[in-house]
Amino acid sequence: QEKSPRLSADLFGEDCEISHDQLYELLKYAALGKCHNATQSSWCRIYHQSHLAGVVVLVLHEMSQLHFYKFYLQFKHLRKVFRHRFTLTPSANFLASLYGEGANPKPQSTAQGLTSTSSECIPKISDLECDPIIRKYGEKKQGLTSYTLTLEEQKKNDYPIKGSPGCKGYVDTECDQQRTDSSPLFGLDCEMCLTAKGNEVTRVSLVDAQGQCLLNELVKPEGTVVNYRTRFSGITKKMLLPVKTRLPDIQTRLKKMLPHDAVLVGHSLNADLQALEMIHPSVIDTSLLFARNEGRRFKLKFLAKAVLGKEIQCEQKLGHDPAEDARAALELAQFFIEQGPAKVAELNLETLLTTEKLAEVSQSKAALQPQGCRVQKRLNEPPHLTKPCFLDCLQVTGQKPLLLGRQELDSSGLCQSNLSTSNKQILQRALEDVPLYTFSIIQFSLGPEYIASHLLAGLCEKVRSKLTDMLTIYAGPFEEGFCLKSVKKEFGRCGPIQSLTVVTETYQPYVCIQYEVLEAAQLAVESLNGAEVAGSCIKVQRPVTAAMLDCDVLIKELELDVENEGVIYVAGLKKSLTETDLQEEFSQLKDLETLFLPKDLQSGKHRNCCFLKFQKSQSAVDALDVINGWTMKGSKLRSRNALASGHLCRWIWQMNHSDGKQGGDILYKKMGQLSDSEQDLRKKVKKLDQHIKKLYRRLQNNTLCVVLFPGVNSMHGSQSGLGLMGIKDDGGRSAC
After folding, report:
1. Which part of the chain is the RRM domain (predicted)?
2. Which end of the chain has fewer CB atoms surrounding its CB within 10 Å, N or C?
């Protein structure tokens, strides 16, 4: 039993957002152990990794954390089995983030029409005619206008398009002049942070054709910052404090700086223009220009080293330098235009990347360098790849990876698909094949029709509305002229209050209170209903709406959620108490493992409540008896079982502080038209949960299972992804 593998992840509380690099780091170590430079991830440790029976990753395409919480009751298996949960930033190339940069799985269609792959991941290109660059552009050199994206290509790759419904309010650069092969090139790159509104610009850089930086400015986002993404953006809270520049200021400056025939160059430039909320008709996207097999894309860091001999995005630096990235993309485009497709194809970039044998890059490349660019001369050092394909590494160690799915991926995807293949067929194949492999990725799908902007917007608004109702209570009736301060003080002992208003439309006054956490509202209903407050015997209840009819069921299921096992909520704390003070006060409680003191994400101040996590469930039950009625520093404490102690706690805050555009920009009065779609979606989600349950039961004990909701990231809106994970133990549950 001592050697059984287990997870140790510090995801309790608000610090539970995991990047794709961190997820890749975990999966690589789980699959390879200490082989091939794999190391323990910083956010989740795997003890006794060598005793893992296998790794199974379940990808639920077209789904986000919005779906998990909207259909929480339908996900009966997921919420009762996987105790570790984390937010995942949505990605346009989600599967690639699971494999690493060098990934190149080569799918084979089976008789059932499923997508399947083993580790035959390395392409061998012996004929230039087969090179994707030659197939796309031919061998002859052409002017820059031959490499600008067509309108159809822009639409396909999610570029902001003039007149598109998703681009309402976007600023047009008004660069309408006819482009020629002598039109000026400008490199553009932005860094973003995650706010309550989604991705927002924090720094913008623009360079001209000579590499001179014309603009490199910090931008203060409109929404409340949830994650500065300092590791990638280099942006910190301190850097943005004195900044006055806002997005409209940058939009105005860019319009003035760009000539009417300007061609913008960038790497995955669509993301930058979407974040800038700007429309520009003529662009060169280097992630598409250097075409790859099956439509995948090279990383900018790799291209800069392999083509230009430049090291960018160095690990020693804090975050990316947008001016450096903009300049690299510009020089890559100039290289391609000046040398032509044939010379670029001769570099054999695919082989350099997938084999990691880059010593073949010789001095002959020096003759291919563009005269107009400042390209480093030292090309004899092979580029350094930060994330090699660990599927290749599995093959070297004698293990076989498995990929099954029916998802049709876009140009940045990794595999082909067969849309006629159902989730049931995928499940049947997985039940047969997963036990034969040590690493498996199984993809299920709702279908592309379920990521339509109007459906996402409807779901988002309904979830937000229901959360608001669950956080809200009505109390009364009170006598005329009652003491509102006394009411606020009494109800404040249940937890942090977001708003308090007096209802005067009734015969006698009532009070409407919206709390910040679910536990506070539930505690108020349980402890103050029928109590005497401000001289009146009052009734405390939640709003009565159709959506709230299952509120009691939902509260009960939240209490039984495995994430809340052994966790209690404590309210009535004095705000002057520090975390150290509370640790000392609660130290007498048996088996106390962790204390989490929530902060207001806007002000940074502690709330008047905390969560206590115990090693054993019975210890949590015993602690409730001790704490209820306990007086601490003159304040009487109230306590109950936790409802939203972990991931849900953060998600509720984000939903309540978002601007309502996460799911798309539509009129919510049309929501009545969505009932049939939502009913169908509810059935699909329930069936999907049953599929996962069947597959999970078939897994061997000591198998690491990770369930991923990739999230949605398009011009219609963005929804963050969600991850759930655990190691299956003898009881069929996921062990810590």
Report:
1. 471-545, 566-644
2. N
Which residues lie closer than 8 Å to 96 by C-beta, 6 or more apart?
103, 296, 412, 413, 414
Tens of pLDDT, residue by residue over 472-529, are 999 999 999 999 999 999 999 999 999 999 998 899 999 999 999 999 999 999 999 9
Q: Position 244: which residue type?
A: K
**Is residue 88 within 8 Å of 720, Cβ to Cβ?**
yes
* Range name among 98-107, 246-255, 303-312, 391-400 with the lowest pLDDT average: 98-107
Q: Can you name the residues that pair with 726 across neighbouring β-strands?
A: 705
Highest average pLDDT, of 218-222, 387-391, 602-606, 728-732, comes from 218-222
Task: Give the alpha-carbon dihedral of 181, 184, 187, 193, to 10 degrees.
Answer: -110
CATH code for 565-642?
3.30.70.330
Q: Which two tokens stand for residue 707?
A: 């369930």
Domain residue ranges in the chain: 6-101+419-450+673-728, 132-355, 565-642
Residue 448, preceding peptide bond in cis (omega within 30° of 0): no
Query: How many Å apart are CA 334 and CA 514, to the nearest integer?
Result: 57
Question: Dihedral, CA atoms, 491, 494, 495, 496, nearest 10 degrees?
Answer: 0
Instruction: Summarize pLDDT for 211-245 with one digit per residue, the tens.
Output: 999 999 999 999 998 888 887 788 888 999 999 99
Domain 132-355 sits in which CATH superfamily? Ribonuclease H-like superfamily/Ribonuclease H (3.30.420.10)
The answer to whether residues 251 and 230 touch, using CB atoms and an 8 Å cutoff, is: no
